[in-house]
Amino acid sequence: MLSGAAAAPTREQARAIYRTMHLIRRFEERVAECFAAGEIPGFIHLSTGQEAVAATVGALLRPDDLVSATHRGHGQCLAKGADPARVMAELFGRATGCCRGKGGSMHLCDLARGVLGTNGVVGANLPIAVGTALAARVRGTGQVTVAFFGDGAANTGAAHEALNLAAVWSLPVVFVCENNLYAEFTPQAVHARVSRIADRAPAYGMPGVTVDGNDVPALFAAAASAIDVARSGAGPTLLEAMTYRYRGHHEGDPMSYRPREELEAWRARDPIPRFRAWLGQRGWLADEEDARLAAEVQAEVDRATEFARSSPWPEPTAALEDVYA
Amino acid sequence: MLSGAAAAPTREQARAIYRTMHLIRRFEERVAECFAAGEIPGFIHLSTGQEAVAATVGALLRPDDLVSATHRGHGQCLAKGADPARVMAELFGRATGCCRGKGGSMHLCDLARGVLGTNGVVGANLPIAVGTALAARVRGTGQVTVAFFGDGAANTGAAHEALNLAAVWSLPVVFVCENNLYAEFTPQAVHARVSRIADRAPAYGMPGVTVDGNDVPALFAAAASAIDVARSGAGPTLLEAMTYRYRGHHEGDPMSYRPREELEAWRARDPIPRFRAWLGQRGWLADEEDARLAAEVQAEVDRATEFARSSPWPEPTAALEDVYA
Amino acid sequence: MPETRYVKAIADALAEEMARDERVIVLGEDVGAPGGAFGATRGLVQRFGKDRVRDTPISESAIVGAAIGAAASGLRPVVEIMFMDFIGTCWDQVVNQMAKMRYMFGGQLRLPLVLRTHTGAGLNAGPQHSGSLEAWAVHVPGLKVVMPSTPADVKGLLKAAIRDDNPVLVVENKTLYAMKGEVPAGEHLVPLGRADVKREGRDATVVALSRMVHEALRAAELLAAEGVSVEVLDPRTLSPLDREAVLASVAKTGRLVIAHEAWGPCGVGAEVAALVAEHGLASLRAPVRRVTPPFTPVPFSPAMEKAWLPGAERIAAAVREVLGRCA
Amino acid sequence: MPETRYVKAIADALAEEMARDERVIVLGEDVGAPGGAFGATRGLVQRFGKDRVRDTPISESAIVGAAIGAAASGLRPVVEIMFMDFIGTCWDQVVNQMAKMRYMFGGQLRLPLVLRTHTGAGLNAGPQHSGSLEAWAVHVPGLKVVMPSTPADVKGLLKAAIRDDNPVLVVENKTLYAMKGEVPAGEHLVPLGRADVKREGRDATVVALSRMVHEALRAAELLAAEGVSVEVLDPRTLSPLDREAVLASVAKTGRLVIAHEAWGPCGVGAEVAALVAEHGLASLRAPVRRVTPPFTPVPFSPAMEKAWLPGAERIAAAVREVLGRCA
Ligand SMILES: Cc1ncc(C[n+]2csc(CCOP(=O)(O)OP(=O)(O)O)c2C)c(N)n1
Ligand SMILES: Cc1ncc(C[n+]2csc(CCOP(=O)(O)OP(=O)(O)O)c2C)c(N)n1
Ligand SMILES: [Mg+2]
Ligand SMILES: [Mg+2]
To answer: Could you give the strand order of the β-sheet that contains C196-199, starting from the edge strand earlier in sequence?
Structure first.
């Protein structure tokens, strides 16, 4: 078990996290292209800029641990091991999608990989994560559940009830808030007097910590400790990661509400080159390895896209299945 | 305007508060008798033991200020000026009741006196109180709204959303939590890791204070300050009053879940004799005045009961009225 | 057969299923030591422990969400929502998560979970504690809804619901908790989706829900004295509705009255009437009649609530009407 | 008459009423500078200021509760709930507070408040962003419910709703926001509770809601080519329903088809069918038919959603059926 004290990623963990960040970045960029090209229907919320959070947390979880994701959850699912091809096919609405084309971007699920689903109702996934953690406790499986949520979701009643219930029952769950400063088109200050969601942890008698969400080593230490505490039976932690989304709230959002300097400032703190440098300092990733890794990831995303494009549409009658067991 | 610093009740205020506590105590005891005698239908939640909170807050409010009350709200309504006779008649289900017999104990309302209603859904009154405060702000009336709630209600999503919204909009509302250590038949520790509801105020960037809810002068200073802050436009306060209910959750509750010593300990801190002593020290209430006051209150409750008993039942067809304006 | 109270039949069903399957857990406000606000979980925590019988905070969304997550992770939770009137506080979890999860995830999981709650006026509990809101759930695919009218049915349907691999709302009636009735000894299951003819008759069909079944039976007695033979059909399960049973009874009697405590517009009575207008029109020999309360909230005062609540007399009058015997 | 988009007609109605009555305020997520997720509040904050046009946190219960309190204190709030699919997050405030407050307080207050939201599938928005849930509200006394199908109706009904002294749910349709249509210049009000014959006909009545009105009109065109004359009746207000208009149309045509995007069981179609089974049975010359989607959540993939969603063809087929012209 990891010691929460000041856990640092091993070489393998670090390279895995770096690769996952790349994968998410390329995957999301490809989704944006395919959406613009009209290949992906519906609404799409991308997470470019926020990759470090999902990638680091995902690397710290067991295969049988669970992740409850948000509407901005492609990366959260991929980092937990969801198959990019089946996720892409789901976004394309194809029969081969992870949810047979019934869910789409806001309802991605891959239970075998511990991906409990993205969710279209803000805040609604937190209570469900409390439930999987409850089952882990009652069944004694040792599983940990991670519930991702946003700064905006923190103001929902569902989030409050879930945080309190998880705390009073000391359940093995970690609440990871990706605070990207905006809910849709509105800055956080319009939604709350407090700017740090982790400051709400004491209201539940729960430890709360805020970290730079674009700094993998900082995230790693904080998440390792929170997961460790949860698995050990000491209960939930509210872990807040300060980060930023590069693209609009949804694809097609003109982003008129954000000062361009703000975006530039955050781009300067892009988590991927930052962690690349960190790896470099340790001599853990030579340039040619980096190039190979980039090529591998690109190929994986190409394969996923090809798989999605070449997959059949669901039969219309499939809409009638899966309502009841 | 009161200075929040260390406001103390004037002689008149103090005597008024003392009288109101008496009135609530006698009223609730009478309700218990009439309920036991089968004169009052439905569910009844009494507030004996908690009188100081409602009485003190009520004494600090303007006639046009508003109170949003709970299911344990008879005292909260009386302290704001609701007519005991019309409230008693409502509990009896008579046509002369403040709500024409349509509401009963959990739906008492007397808008002319600023009583916005008791509520049968725990936590649901907080958002509504935010709304009356919003109207006061938009219309510039200078009114303050007080929302009472319980320790159990603090765990509802509605309470969370209301506290946050009131804070971010700096509305003229005071949230008064009557923490009586239990929600129905279950002690607070089963419902939350935190034992002080006021500890949740920082989560909203709101001042929070906990006071002895059986100590009128302490309540007075804290409530005066909170109301002052709200009226001045500086926003809401979460004021927690630690208190205790002497009777069951509802009439008929055997109270098997509470150690008798606990009840005894609280009875020893009964707010009425305590404040009587405080008044005595100041020479603000001679024994004969006290006796007269007690007799007056008794007579008022007798009149209220007589009014209720002798009032007609509503016409069955009245059930069809007041659905739409 | 032994006589058992409705509320005891619930407690027995829970105890039997918890003993039978350790994946069954119970969650809700005061369901532990207090045994629930109405005693339906009495004795469970003493027998099965605090891990499986959990008192919750007043957090309906978290309670239901927790049950959903637990069901998705291998447990079979039974949640109690203290009054159906409060279901609005967790309605999003019920309709957007519980009802849709299996579907929107392409059938990857099953959600074996039961949500127990109760409806019913007549106790002067007032506008927020007396409602009958089952129709909202019947409108939602992915949910099953049962509404038992007797101790035997509540025991058998609750046990069947706990064993079902789908979310099932078990809608009890607070005014029936004290009712005594015969319950078959030993294992007793009532299949979901099967209506029950509570009384056979030839001249008119009364489809009645929950407590109205007993009012309909009283009405049938009154009418028998007038030489009218009334069939009382209790759907028991509202979703999926036993359409064949309704159509068969109307085919036999040619006349239909529907009685429930819920409001009329878009209620279950509307669905039953529509079913017959679509698939049983030829057998209808008279207009359909719905017996429901007036379209107002439930008034508190006994003087109003008694008149507000439909009963045997109103049901009998409706039957006379469809038989063209308006006095 | 000038052509206006449905979403612009909403913004115009809001602006006109805010200019006319300073008690009218607007609350909701992103309703300020962003102009709402679909642009229905565009321009309002610039014109009327942040005090009267308020961006809220993601706190639906607090938003609706705040509107209730504000209405009880002399304002006339217009709340936007971004998708009707999310109404479960504030359903308790809607049904236990908004709908009952006037009644349970014995008529002491009026609640002049409007809750705007939208329904509608067809944009591949998936299972939690495509629902049509109006029937839940129609089931609840104390609420009024309108469901406008054209730019003119949405403007006129929204303005009338804002001036009404009761809580009114204005249920828009996201797939109609971009639709253009003629809107009478100047003051245009559409009275609540009045249905509209969108097309006159003799042979069959199609009662259609929201976007289905346009599908019904297309079906009427198809059938006209076959020599069938279809009357398309748009109730516009679902609660209170214009019962006379429905019964009058069926009395004329003797045949009834109902079409809506909401699920069938306990939907508005059930209520309309029940109304006719109770009060128009004599005029019915054929079984009623309901045209609704299958009883499943709304699937995401266009391949499934297109087939899932009823349209003109299915409506036409139902009309042929009730006319006994099954091809
Ligand atoms: C209950 C609910 N209300 C409103 C919405 C519409 N909505 C979708 S995303 C979003 C903003 C969420 O903000 P945040 O939680 O910070 O997540 P982010 O989008 O920033 O990742 C809103 C309001 C919703 N999906 N669910
Ligand atoms: C939403 C909701 N859930 C449950 C109930 C049932 N109920 C009525 S009072 C109560 C306990 C409230 O506890 P608290 O808020 O501490 O107030 P107290 O009774 O102690 O004054 C509960 C659970 C309710 N009325 N509303
Ligand atoms: Mg955000
Ligand atoms: Mg309490």
So the answer is: C196-199, C230-234, C204-208, C256-259, C289-291
Q: In chain C, what residues touch D297 (CB-CB under 8 Å)?
A: 99-100, 103-104, 141-142
Which residue in chain B has the smallest CA separation from A157?
B157
Decide if B160 touches A, using CB distance below 8 A.
Answer: yes
Ligand 2 atom at minimum distance from C29 CA? 23
| d(C-alpha D61, C-alpha A156), whole Å | 9
Give the model confidence (pLDDT) of C69-105 as tens digits: 999 999 999 999 999 999 999 999 999 999 999 999 9
Mutate to test the pocket of ligand 1, among A107, A160, A184 (most ligand atoms within 8 A of CB): A184
Select the residue of D33, D55, D128 nearest A120 (Cβ to Cβ): D128
Whether the CB of A320 is below 8 Å from some CB of chain D: the reply is: yes
Please check whether residue C160 is in contact with residue C206, taking contact to mean a CB–CB distance below 8 angstroms: no
Tell me what pLDDT residue B4 has.
Answer: 45
Maximal CA-CA distance, chain D: 61
State if residue A152 touches ligand 1 by the CB under 6 angstroms criterion. Answer: yes
- Tens digits of residue pLDDT in A118-154: 999 999 999 999 999 999 999 999 999 999 999 999 9
Chain A CB contacts of B204 under 8 Å are 192-194
Residues 6+ apart with CB under 8 A from B176: B53, B57, B146, B147, B148, B149, B223, B239, B240, B241
Residues near B31 by beta carbon (within 8 Å), at least 6 away in sequence: B40, B44, B46, B74, B88, B91
Whether residue B184 and residue C294 make contact (CB cut-off 8 A), yes or no, is no
Task: Please indicate whether residue B242, judged by its CB atom, sits closer than 6 Å to ligand 2.
Answer: no
With beta carbons less than 8 A apart as the criterion, state whether C144 and C161 touch.
Answer: yes
The residue with tokens 């209603």 is: B117
Residue B199: closest CA among chain A residues belongs to which residue? A203
| Greatest Cα-to-Cα distance within chain B, rounded to the nearest angstrom | 56
Q: Which two tokens stand for residue A115?
A: 């991906």
A85 Cβ closer than 6 Å to some ligand 1 atom: no
Assess contact for A93 and A142: CB atoms under 8 A: no
Structure tokens at C43: 């004795």
At residue A308, what are phi and psi to the nearest 5 degrees? -65, -50
Please say whether the beta carbons of B52 and B215 come within 8 A.
yes
Tell me the mean pLDDT in the region C264-274. Answer: 98
HEC assignment per residue over B127-157 = HHHHHHHHHHHHHCCCCCEEEEEECCHHHCH
Taking the C-alpha atoms of residue B306 and residue B300, their distance in angstroms, rounded to an integer, is 10
- Cβ of C68 and A133 within 8 Å? no
Geometric angle at alpha carbon D320, from D318 and D326, rounded to 5° = 105
Cite the DSSP H helix spans in chain B: 11-36, 51-60, 74-79, 84-91, 125-139, 157-168, 216-231, 260-267, 271-281, 287-310
For residue D46, the distance in angstroms to the closest alpha carbon of chain A comes to 15
The list of chain A residues with pLDDT below 50 reads: 1-4
Residues with Cβ < 8 Å from A140, sequence gap 6 or more? none
Q: For atom 22 of ligand 1, which residue has the closest CA? A: A184
Q: Is B127 close to D56, i.e. CB distance below 8 A?
A: no
Is A184 touching ligand 1 by the criterion CB < 6 Å? Answer: yes
Pick from C96, C128, C139: which is nearest to D136 by CB? C139
Q: How far is the centre of ligand 2, averaged over its atoms, from the C-alpha of C78 (Å)?
A: 21
Rounded distance between C-alpha atoms, residue D23 and residue B270, angstroms: 46
A287-310 helix and A11-36 helix, angle to the nearest 10 degrees: 40
Question: For the segment D187-210, what is each residue's pLDDT rounded down to a tens digit?
Answer: 999 999 999 999 999 999 999 999
Instruction: Give distance in angstroms: CA of B152 to centre of ligand 3.
Output: 30
- Cα diameter, chain A: 56
Q: Could you give the CA distance from residue A304 to residue A310 in angstroms, rounded to a whole number? A: 10
Query: C129 catalytic, yes or no?
Result: yes
CA distance D284 to D297: 32
